What we know:
Layout: E1 2-7, E2 13-18, H1 24-35, E3 42-46, E4 49-50, E5 67-72
Parallel strand pairs: 1-5
Antiparallel strand pairs: 1-2, 3-4, 3-5
Keywords: Ubl conjugation pathway
Pfam family, one: ubiquitin
Domain Ubiquitin-like: 2-73
Amino acid sequence: MIEVTVNDRLGKKVRVKCNPTDTIGDLKKLIAAQTGTRPEKLVLKKWYTIYKDAITLNDYEIHDGFNFELYYQ
C-alpha cells in the first residue's frame, strides 16, 4: 500500500491509500469517495503531465508520498 496526497489548491487536500497496481481511474474513484465529486470530473496533473485513467501507478513510477494536483473539469 502506498499513500498519495491530492491537493486542489482551493483548500481541499486529501490523502489516499492505494495499491501500486491500481490504475489512475481507480485512484480517481477513491478520491471521489472522499471529496464527494464524481470521478469523471477529476483531472490529476503534476506540472504539465496529465495522467491517463487506464495506466497503473507503477507504470507512471508513482511512489509513496507522491503529490498530485487536482483539477475539476
